[in-house]
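agent> fetching stored inputs for the iron/sulfur cluster docking request
agent> found them:
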Amino acid sequence: MADQTTESATGDRREPIVSQDPTEDAGPAAGPAPAAEGAPSVKHLHDPQAGATNGGSPGVPAPLHLVVRIRRYDPEADTVPHWEDYRVDAQPTDRVLDALHRIKWEQDGSLTFRRSCAHGVCGSDAVRINGRNRLACKTLVKDLDPAKPITVEPIKGLPLLKDLVVDMEPFLDSYKQVLPFLVAGGNPPTRERLQSQEQRQRYDDTTKCILCAACTTSCPVFWTDGQYFGPAAIVNAHRFIFDSRDTAATQRLSILNDREGVWRCRTTFNCTEACPRGIEVTKAISEVKQALVYGL
Ligand code: SF4
Ligand code: FES
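agent> prediction call returned; pasting tokens
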């Protein structure tokens, strides 16, 4: 898994304008606690350019005037999460991650989120944007409706640590349990372990996983039963189960035949829709089920 950087509390927090939010919340918050459902939501408006006009420069696209609505939670100060609004000017080609950086660097240094590569490779910045799991670094603001606040909140079903950061350990524990590495028996060959193009193609899709957890944390079964292995663990088991060089497929299938394994999947396709790598997650889960029933 790629290295992750956690943005930590380093800056000043500007005094917000406080207003009651009559509309939120759109759904359950990340983690079993402390995200209390139905808790009163207080929205703070941070507006560094209140009263200013900005029509853009010649030759430069006019900036979009965004309101980014972020679900904030500081375990040292808050009992429940709340929403805060930030006004941000952004170019249409900016990503949501750019807006988060602007907010952190220019308005509130205490905003905490993960990111590392900023290019869709490390998988560390999966968040819920407008109610959908996405990578902040792969989501262009022009693809969202700039007339409405852009909501950003932590992914659901994992313990909330601070602001947009969740504890990934339960997710990684499931991943480790499916033996996500090549188990090649017998004596080492004198040359590399050969494989035909067809054999390699068999698991090509599931090699693309970046362990962002967008799939697992979009799964309603995982929300209600944190013991479920979840789509990402099954995808990574698939990657090796169907690798012709591997000799531990039976072992992995046995692990996933557990009551918390593949049979918990209800084929909602949330995982496939959430995957930023375009992996056919539901299909991979289905292929593992078929291997359990009909053999490899
Ligand atoms: S399968 Fe897709 S959504 Fe799930 S962890 Fe891997 S890259 Fe992320
Ligand atoms: S920051 Fe690495 S995937 Fe978004």
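agent> quick read of the result: The two ends are 28 Å apart (CA to CA).
agent> awaiting further instructions
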